[in-house]
């Protein structure tokens, strides 16, 4: 094959912990990603027993899709993407994991007009 068919769908994919941000907004519960510290060469990432003042938790902001999803989706479109796959942290929908009813506010990020 010399190239892609004209109807090939270029797209992108992201995962909740890599992009969401808004870690303590919209009724979201704490997930493992929320208590995992940053690492560096020679410094391992660490899962802490809770949020510790002064520690760097990079997933708290990530790329802040929670607040910037409209702009991010426009950027995907400008790049020519025709499809977009994302995931959402289950702690947005069931903050503690034992709820009978979902956290309706957690669905807001899913209703972003995609």
Question: Would you write up a description of this structure?
Answer:
- The chain is mostly helical and 114 residues long.
- The chain has three helices and two strands, in the order E-H-H-E-H.
- The protein has one domain.
- Helices cover 19% and strands 5% of the residues.
- It comes from Salmonella diarizonae.
- Keywords: Glycosidase, Hydrolase.
- One of its GO terms (molecular function) is 6-phospho-beta-glucosidase activity.
What does this entry show, briefly?
By secondary structure, this protein is mainly α. It has one domain (11-110).
Notable features of this structure?
114 residues, mainly alpha, two-stranded parallel ribbon, 5% strand
Topology:
Layout: E1 11-13, H1 16-19, H2 65-78, E2 83-85, H3 90-93
Parallel strand pairs: 1-2
Order of strands, main sheet, comes to 1-2
> What is the approximate shape?
globular
In N-to-C order, the SSE pattern is EHHEH
Total domains:
1
Number of strands: 2
Could you give the distance between the termini? 31 Å
Largest sheet: 2 strands, parallel
The proportion of residues forming helix, as a percent range, comes to 10-25%
| Count of runs of 4 or more consecutive helical residues | 3
The percentage of residues in β strands lies in 5-15%
Low-confidence stretches: none
Family: Belongs to the glycosyl hydrolase 1 family.
Organism: Salmonella diarizonae
GO cellular component, one term: cytosol
GO molecular function, one term: 6-phospho-beta-glucosidase activity
């Amino acid at each position: 094959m010399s190239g892609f068919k004209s109807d090939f769908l270029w797209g992108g994919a992201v995962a909740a912990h890599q992009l969401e941000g808004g870690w303590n907004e919209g009724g979201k519960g704490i997930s493992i990603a929320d208590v995992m510290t940053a690492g560096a060469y020679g410094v391992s990432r660490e899962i802490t027993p809770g949020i510790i003042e002064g520690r760097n938790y990079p997933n708290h902001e990530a790329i802040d899709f929670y607040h910037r999803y409209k702009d991010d989706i426009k950027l995907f479109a400008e790049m020519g993407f025709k499809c977009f796959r994302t995931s959402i942290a289950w702690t947005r929908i069931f903050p503690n994991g034992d709820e009978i009813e979902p956290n309706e506010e957690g669905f807001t990020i899913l209703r972003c007009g995609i």
